[in-house]
Write a structure and sequence with these properties.
This protein is of the alpha+beta class and 214 residues long. 46% of the residues lie in helices and 17% in strands. 26% of the residues are buried.
Length: 214
Amino acid sequence: MDALALQKAVRKLNRAERALETMRSSESASQTEEAWEDFLSAFGTIYSTFEEGSKGHGRSSAWFGREKSRRKKDPLLRYIHFARNAEEHGIRRIVERNSTSITLKSPFAGVRLRPDGKNTWAVVEIRGDVHFANDVVRLVEIFDERFGDSCKPPDHHLGQPLSTTTPISVAELGLAYLKSMIVDANKLLPGTEADAPKGEPSSAGPVDPSEVAP
């Protein structure tokens, strides 16, 4: 693994962590949505950085190949990857807004709701002047129009069922996985003959593993 790639990945990890903290402290749906997009961008850059940094390094190339395969198979990693690509290359929004409150603003205003089986309610009829809070950011099925494929919000990660799939809960699990990747990549720096390309010295020093929280 090229040490410069690892150092860049750590910088992007820090950016992903800041995005998650912004989501946790967000005071508006707009801020949450923007932070989610920032997290996706950092997540995708870490993968592309490791892909480039592993080229020409035998053990690193094999490791990254396994990581790409896991990203295709794991529902949470696959969803984050789909969402990042849709945000980067598509024009559709990658989230939708839900409301925790509805305000009836005219004398004969009303709303008819029906349960949708997901602990939420769907609006089936609106009368008069009605205001929806639109204060909750909800993950939705992502469509990749380039390849005619789609990906639903994840229900499992690393073989374990998920009890909730909010932007924050998905980002928390995604961040934990990124940290484990960086710890693994740190072990693949060119300190062994098996990993270093012939005739090419290491271009930078290793990353201190203590900089990456478990």
